[in-house]
Design a protein that fits this description.
- There is one protein chain.
- With 294 residues, the chain is an alpha/beta fold.
- The chain has 3 domains: 3-60, Nucleic acid-binding proteins (OB fold (Dihydrolipoamide Acetyltransferase, E2P), Beta Barrel); 71-212, Rossmann fold, CATH 3.40.50.300; 230-284, Probable gtpase engc, domain 3 (Ribonucleotide Reductase Protein R1, domain 1, Orthogonal Bundle), CATH 1.10.40.50.
- The protein has 8 helices and 15 strands.
- The strands form 4 sheets. The protein has a 6-stranded mixed beta sheet, sandwiched between helices.
- A hairpin with a 4-residue loop joins strand 12 (187-188) and strand 13.
- The radius of gyration is 21 Å and the shape is globular.
Length: 294
């Protein structure tokens, strides 16, 4: 049976790209009983006698998936953050980075609206770029680097876009592929954030890779992450933790903690450590979610 990738899901149909052709399929009836919902990005086994009448027989194991946008097998995520309107937030940025790390999705930080920023804000963004690149994250400033610097990352990858509301995700996608005609949401002045402008998801061929044409989530709650998992999502903490006195050090109240020492010496950003403590408390105080039995 042929193996293809779902590139679009709409109204109960799944569209599969296979050897240069697109096949319209439905999921087998027993998928619901097996609690399987195919997602855009899934690799599937399917059968089809023609391009409009096929069935998905099986869904191969995913390496990851997201709920918003509903996409599977993602290689990298472009975190779009504006430096003004709305103002840049390292707290929100770190939330995205932690969440992507948990999903094994490589992050690319892209800062928009640099042309609207004051000289002081531009300088602040340059400093943030240096700080985060030192940790190991690629950071692109829209006015400083070209779109080509971003699209160079796309080759042979499945890429999704996400970031704060109103940061310009749809605008950026439209610049990358003008024929998308994504609706651009207005900024709500009273709320200081953008309106949701998402729609169904489709993977499009761009710059020798696949890009989800729908911007993803704009805010993050740590609904599944554990306290043991959280420290592993800060690369600079992982690097320092081999010198902590305790192997499972949580970098809070433990003595001879190398992470805390590096925060004190400025080798680890104090803002990153503060956000870690905040995220830790959020997870620790999270109310349990009870799933209803069917």
């Amino acid at each position: 049976m042929p193996k293809g990738q779902i590139c679009k899901a709409l109204s109960g149909f799944y569209y599969i790209d296979y050897k240069g052709k697109r096949y319209q399929t439905r999921a087998r009836g027993n998928f619901r009983n097996r609690n399987i919902t195919p997602l855009v990005g899934d690799w599937v086994e399917f059968e089809s006698t023609n391009e409009t009448d096929g069935y998905i027989l099986d869904v191969y194991e995913r390496k990851n998936d997201l709920v918003r946008p509903p996409v599977a097998n993602i290689d990298q995520g472009v975190v779009v953050s504006s430096c003004v309107e709305p103002n840049f937030s390292t707290n929100l940025l770190d939330r995205f980075l932690v969440t992507l790390s948990e999903k094994d999705i490589a992050p690319i930080i892209y800062v928009t609206k640099m042309d609207l920023a004051s000289d002081d804000v531009k300088q602040e963004m340059i400093e943030i770029q240096k700080d985060y690149e030192q940790i190991g994250y690629p950071v692109l400033l829209a006015e400083k680097e070209s779109l080509e610097d971003l699209t160079d990352f796309f080759k042979d990858k499945l890429t999704v876009f996400m970031g704060q509301s109103g940061a310009g995700k749809s605008t950026l996608l439209n610049q990358l592929s003008p024929d998308l005609s994504l609706k651009v949401g207005e900024i709500s002045e009273s709320l200081g954030r953008g309106r949701h402008t998402t729609r169904h998801v489709e993977l499009i061929d761009l710059f020798d890779g696949l890009v989800a044409d729908t911007p993803g989530f704009s805010s993050i709650d740590f609904l599944e992450m554990t306290l043991d998992e959280l420290p592993k999502r800060f690369p600079e903490f992982v690097e320092a933790s081999v010198y902590c006195k305790f192997r499972e050090c949580k970098h809070r109240h433990e003595p001879k903690c190398e992470v805390k020492r590096k925060v004190e010496t400025g080798e680890i950003l104090a803002s990153r450590y503060d956000h870690y403590l905040q995220f830790y408390d959020e997870i620790n105080n999270r109310k349990p979610v009870y799933k209803k039995n069917k």
